[in-house]
Amino acid sequence: MQMINLAKLPQYADALADEGWFVIPDAINQLAVESFKDVILKTKQTAEFKKAGIGTGHDFQLNSSVRGDFIHWISRYPQETILQEWMQSISALRKGLNRELFLGLQDIEMHMAIYPPGTFYQRHLDQFNKRSNRLISVVLYLNQHWQPGMGGELVIYRTNAEPVIVEPHAGTLVCFMSDQIEHEVLTTHFERFSITGWMLKKPIGLGFL
Ligand code: OGA
Ligand code: MN
Fold first, then answer.
1. Whole-model pTM?
2. Which domains, from first to last, does the chain contain?
3. Ligand 2 mean position, distance from CA 3 (Å)
4. pLDDT tens sequence across 43-61
5. Whole-number Å distance between alpha carbons of 132 and 150
6. Where does ligand 1 bind, in terms of residues with CB under 6 Å?
7. How many angstroms does the Cα of residue 186 sit away from the middle of ligand 1?
């Protein structure tokens, strides 16, 4: 089952083409949020969340002064129904954006992310220099009782305009051009949960250089 309502796809595509980003508040319902949270909490108990790094291959570094989150990569064929449905949903969004914008997006990669209290991710782009196949970033937030003052907001930097602050409310989905939109995660004061994905220009492993 595909979870995201794509009735407004033409508007999303226009926003992506014109501004480089768009937000869908309440992209998924609270029941689905609960399912995602269950999977993340279970994964945290039974599997490893690794400290996220920056760069790839020889350039890979763990640097807490840049980012403090912990991640767990999601399998291409996950066992959990909610993750299967999310894969299908992001694929449907990917195909829709391909149709609207002729992007040639071919694949998806995704991880769960946990930012412990006190952590952040400094201003950056989502394309690391040696690995340039990430074209569109997609982040889904899962923070059910988020309120102003709790931190962990996403800041989207724009040229010739004030930055946009995206509150990481459960069910909010944000999409932006990975190579163009500089962004930052502000220090969180709570345990912040999200699922981050990237739509890729070429399948993983084919080497895009
Ligand atoms: C990232 C990232 C944004 C967010 O994982 O690269 O920028 O709001 N995430 O979690
Ligand atoms: Mn990022």
1. 0.93
2. 19-53+67-74+108-199 (2.60.120.620)
3. 23
4. 999 999 998 887 766 666 7
5. 33
6. 113, 121, 126, 139, 154, 183, 185, 194, 196
7. 10
